[in-house]
Amino acid sequence: MILLVQAAEPLVHSRTQASRWRGPRAFALALLITFATAGVTPSAVLAAGDEIPEIPSCATLLARKVTFNATTVAIEGEQLTKERLRKQWATSVLDPMYRLPSNYVPTTLTWITTQAVASPTKGVFLLRRSAAKALRSMFVAASEAEVQLRIMSAYRSYQTQKTTFAYWVEQSGLRLARKYSAIPGHSEHQLGTAVDLGTLGAGAPWGSASFATSPTAIWLAENAYKFGFVRSYPAGAKRVALSCYGSEPWHWRYVGLNLAYEIVCSEQVPRIFLWNKQYGGERVIGENCAELQVPLGYPVDGDADGDGVMDEVDNCPDVFNPDQLDNDANGIGDACEPAPTPTP
Predict the structure, then answer these.
(1) Looking at the chain, which terminus has fewer C-beta neighbours within 10 angstroms, N or C?
(2) Which domains does the chain carry?
(3) pTM
(4) What gap in Å lies between CA 19 and CA 216, rounded to an integer?
């Protein structure tokens, strides 16, 4: 991942679903009491009033001092990300403030080829097994659509990211390097679930201004979520300001089918979505969510039949009926009305 710098959109959209993610408030309050009793400041626990902490602005974070030399790599005020356990790979927030431990190494790393084929002998990239399996499925689907994908980069250890960042510092200086590369510990590639994708037979996508409008980039934008991948650094000034890095149509992070669907449905920058989710915030429903493909068996709160139409507007909320057919226009969907009795 070559990382770039970005700026602010509304944190929520006009249409929201009133249901809450799991993560009971009572548990958060209990933690507050526990920390208070122990005399510890709970920086990652909800404050009184159950308000979601405001995520630090990218402009503020990018203005902080960076120390980068042979012995020290650090950003002023940086902290370990709240959800940093290896099993929390899907929801870890990584940006110029929050990082992984330097000794963080993903589990189930698997060798894969540039075509996402698992191969312990011919593999040139590493990726978590679940991400690798989903990626291979995506490559096959893309090929069937006459889009030929190629992996440009995948898992990077802390040390590899340190070398990568040092290269960009040497090439363009520290200030400019921060616009194109993550400081070690802050890269999603260390999670083992992020990949940089390009077009087979073409050069590096970050070296081509036309890649963003290429058939490859367009296909990924329309279909990657169906395989559990989301674009971490979307285009547009407001989104750039919220992701803290520049537009990267080649950088895709695997978060799993259900979470990818929710993120794309929300129309939020993944960094903002994950921040709100880890603090139990309301799930956001974007204006175009109904047009998305709902994962098979997806457990949607407020959409009992899982057809992508929320119960409050569904004309037959207990039966899967995405087309919302209502031939007699009585407000009750055809799927919920008894079949007419044949005339003798």
Answers:
(1) C
(2) 16-291 (3.30.1380.10), 302-344 (no CATH)
(3) 0.76
(4) 36
